[in-house]
Amino acid sequence: MKKGKKIYEGKAKIIYSTSDKNLVIQYFKDDATAFNNVKRTTIEGKGVLNNRISEHILSNLSQIGIQNHLVKRLNMREQVIKFVEIIPVEFIIRNVATGSLTKRLGIEDGTVLKEPLIEYCLKDDKLGDPLISEDHIYAFEWASKKEIEKIKKMIFRINDFMVGMFRGVGIKLIDFKLEFGRLKNNGKKDVILADEISPDTCRLWDSITDKKLDKDRFRKDLGDLIPAYTEVAKRLGILHEQSNVSAVNITKLSSVNKKRR
Ligand code: UDP
Known about the structure:
Elements: E1 3-9, E2 13-18, E3 23-28, E4 31-34, E5 39-42, H1 46-63, E6 70-73, E7 78-82, E8 85-86, E9 89-96, H2 100-105, E10 112-122, E11 131-132, H3 134-139, H4 145-167, E12 171-185, E13 188-194, E14 202-206, H5 216-219, H6 225-235, H7 247-260
Antiparallel strand pairs: 1-2, 2-3, 3-7, 4-5, 6-7, 8-12, 9-10, 9-12, 10-11, 12-13, 12-14
The structure holds uridine-5'-diphosphate (UDP).
Uridine-5'-diphosphate is lined by residues 90, 92, 99-101, 129, 175-177, 201-203, 215.
């Protein structure tokens, strides 16, 4: 498959066209941003780990019948994905209250929620991804009622599956963000899961110590982000075939990849 032109560049990923109009290549960058792009840096090796972790989660989700955009991983930083029209809503799913929820509503950090809570944010960096209600989605036709009903069902299944998957490796899934897209299918448009699922988009705490194994290490200046993401990958069994892969090796591999480009 031939890699074509860059068609979109986001904060953490780049999308390239391919010779097949229905497929694109998703490239994982090392850039880290937080607080609506105010805080920015590059963390060598982050893209490599997110590519592997997201591939692992999305292929597991495929196996339980959650349709998603992943076709296959190409190399350390790239995967082939189905080209979809992204729904301009970020779906936040919370199992434990932390982050913006605790600040906004004065809920105590770490409060375990009785049921998973879904929040909607408009996907618009210029506006700082504002929180919206379900009715805003219908009022401004960002998605239809039928689409949101289907998405909500998928979200609860994805959450159930991921909570269990992470619990099995000693990690609590605190919250995460999902994006969905429309895939053209014989004139119809099917809604499928898109984007990435990785420690950049999830909050993951060690089950025993509550150590943060996610992007909060960058947001809160806790350091050691690569060792934390590597720990997540190792626990999920992703780095099994390279059990000696350390943060240093991942960094080396990613710079070799960079030189090749
Ligand atoms: N999240 C994300 N991208 C965003 C906003 C949130 O991936 O643009 C994820 C974030 O990593 C966390 C969850 O969604 O796992 C809930 O985020 P919250 O609203 O608490 O974010 P904060 O404002 O605290 O970063």
